[in-house]
Design a protein that fits this description.
The protein has about 200 residues and is mostly beta strands. About 10% of the residues lie in helices and about 50% in strands. The chain has helices at about 85-95, 100-105; strands at about 5-15, 35-45, 50, 55-65, 70-80, 110-120, 120-125, 130-135, 135-145, 155, 165-180, 180-185, 190-200. Strands 1, 2, 3, 4, 5, 6, 7, 8, 9, 10, 11, 12 and 13 form a 13-stranded mixed β-sheet that branches. It is globular.
């Protein structure tokens, strides 16, 4: 019998594309390929009877061409604050085995290079998000300012980490990851954040 689950929270993504990321519209990355960090903070969540509230998850990924065409190489990072059952539940969900939208995202991955349990910190404040993976990887992003002084949004994009949500358009102040052959160290590139809701099966 499939386990019922639901997660809600906040997510960010930061990648190597310049300007408006074409990947959201099924186009090719501006640099020909794409390296990205994606992080999720679970504000409320259950996997069956396993409580997942206040835990974090992240994925480092490399796509050799248009992201919608798949062939991603990925590393999955699980919050080491979780106990064994919590980490197993997060690996099932974000590894795609539990169904829902994460399964669709996981179907684009051709190789999982590692699954690591490390300290993950996800900080959210007005106009900014900060993801830290252990001591040596992470992303810091800041929202761009629209003509009215408010946020800039992207809605109804076909390739979505958080379907149904409006992305806040941001830029990276830093993006760094060097492990398992997925290497990036730059700033002033594309970034987004938004709420997310996932459920399954």
């Amino acid at each position: 019998m499939n386990t019922q689950w639901k997660l809600e929270g906040d997510y960010l993504e930061s990648c190597t594309c310049k300007g408006a990321c074409p990947c959201l519209y099924l186009g090719a990355p501006t640099e020909g390929d794409c390296t990205a960090l994606v992080g999720w903070h679970i504000s409320t969540g259950q996997y069956g009877d396993v409580e997942l509230k206040d835990l974090n998850v992240a994925v480092a990924l490399y796509a050799p061409g248009p992201m919608a065409e798949g062939d991603w190489k990925a590393v999955l990072y699980l919050d080491q604050r979780g106990d064994e059952r919590q980490q197993e539940a997060m690996e099932m969900i974000f590894g795609g085995q539990a169904g829902g939208h994460p399964a669709l995202l996981a179907s684009l991955i051709s190789e999982v290079r590692a699954v690591e349990r490390i300290p993950i910190r996800y900080e959210a404040e007005k106009g900014q998000r900060h993801l830290t993976l252990g001591e040596s990887a992470g992303a810091r992003i800041k929202a761009l300012v629209g003509q009215d002084g408010g946020d800039i949004y992207i809605r109804n994009h076909p390739l979505a980490v958080a379907p149904g949500e409006s992305l806040v358009v941001a830029t990276s102040q830093s993006l760094f990851h060097q492990a398992h052959g997925i290497d990036v160290d730059l700033s002033e590139r594309t970034a987004f954040y938004s709420p997310f809701t996932y459920a399954g099966p």
